[in-house]
């Protein structure tokens, strides 16, 4: 059994930015030389997630609208009350309770099959990274396991 691991960087442009990372994952799998196994793709953040779906512009608009309805940015969130909240604070902390609430509806990682050194995906499936907060630098961990 072999394993291969890497972290890729993504720079998002705005909140609810959806970035197709499929080709980066495919390239990593090919370089790993693992013929059959699994790849796990994991967001290394609490307000950005990974999912598999179509990369079709109108569908992506629908997904963004759906997530905004689930946890609207304009709602009040306890997480955003910096007079009360004292845990996990950093310099220039932003009000992002909405981002965390959106994140609970999406997976932090996906595991997919590798068959004959190729990522196994359906006809329209793509691996998508979604920024739920604001424009920033992000990291995604990729681990390939197999023979």
Q: What is the domain total for the residues? A: 1
Termini separation: 5 Å
CATH homologous superfamily placement: YjbQ-like
Spatial strand arrangement across the major sheet: 1-8-3-5-6
Biggest beta sheet summary: 5 strands, antiparallel
Strand content: 25-35%
Task: Write a structural description.
The chain has one domain (2-79, 94-146): YjbQ-like (Jelly Rolls, Sandwich), CATH 2.60.120.460. The relative contact order is 0.39. The model has no long low-confidence stretch (mean pLDDT 97). It has three helices and eight strands, in the order E-E-H-E-E-H-H-E-E-E-E. The chain is globular. The chain has 147 residues and is of the alpha+beta class. Helix content is 22%, strand content 35%. A five-stranded antiparallel β-sheet has the order 1-8-3-5-6, covered by helices on one side. Strands 2-7-4 form a three-stranded antiparallel β-sheet, covered by helices on one side.
Question: Could you outline the blueprint of secondary structure elements for this entry?
Answer:
Blueprint: E1 2-11, E2 18-20, H1 22-32, E3 37-43, E4 48-53, H2 57-70, H3 97-103, E5 109-115, E6 118-119, E7 126-131, E8 137-146
Describe what is shown at a glance:
The protein is α+β, with helices and mostly antiparallel strands. It has three helices and eight strands; from the N terminus they run E-E-H-E-E-H-H-E-E-E-E.
